[in-house]
Design goal:
This is Peroxiredoxin. It holds the Pfam family AhpC-TSA. The chain is α/β, with parallel strands linked by helices. Helix content is 36%, strand content 22%. The chain has a single domain, classed as 3-Layer(aba) Sandwich (Glutaredoxin). The protein contains 6 helices and 9 strands; from the N terminus they run ββαβααβαβαββββα. A hairpin with a 5-residue loop joins β1 and β2. The chain starts with 13 loop residues before the first strand and ends with a helix.
């Protein structure tokens, strides 16, 4: 598992979206060049706690947008199941499928591996979030070892506002 540290550039990645497109982080950053980006990893559409957290983020999207923060969510699940969740919950931000856990592992997200048959979920990433600035540098990370204890949307917004004020103070001191 890799260890990202504050200030590190996060790895670029390409993953499929639930709409069938390919999402490239570098292109997303270029299209949103003045924005920060919150990358949220979640267990999967089968996790009630994760779905609840994603719905909470959706409910606060306007506030995130006012802070110039885009939202991206990633799970180790196939696009078909994730698409069903997006449609049922009416989520509007990009949801990406990392079926082989390559990006989950590149970000150092804790993973759970369970022995099971082909029908069962055998591996998934635990909840985590990474806030990166417009240059792709890591400003904040939170990684969980289980489904509970993650920052709620309000906590994430408070953290973002705090980091923005720190950046403005640092910028005015130069």
């Amino acid at each position: 598992m890799s260890e990202l540290r504050l200030g590190d550039r996060v790895p670029n990645f390409i993953l499929p979206t639930v709409t069938g497109e390919q999402f490239l982080l570098e292109s997303h950053k270029e299209n949103n060049e003045d924005c920060w980006h919150l990358i949220v990893f979640f267990r999967g559409s089968w996790s009630k706690e994760c779905v609840r957290a994603l719905k909470q983020i959706e409910d606060h999207l306007v506030e995130f947008s006012k802070e110039n923060v885009t939202m991206i969510a990633i799970a180790a699940e196939n696009t078909r199941e994730l698409k069903r969740m997006v449609e049922n919950e009416k989520l509007t931000f990009p949801i990406l499928a990392d079926e082989f856990l390559s990006i989950i592992e590149a970000f150092g997200v804790f993973t759970e591996h369970r022995p099971g048959n082909n029908e069962a979920i055998s591996a998934f990433g635990e909840p985590a979030c990474f806030l990166i600035n417009h240059s792709g540098e890591l400003l904040y990370q939170q990684k969980q070892t289980g489904p509970f204890g993650r920052a709620c949307a309000g906590d994430l917004l408070r953290t973002i506002r705090h980091l923005i004020s720190q950046e403005q103070t640092k910028g005015s001191a130069s």
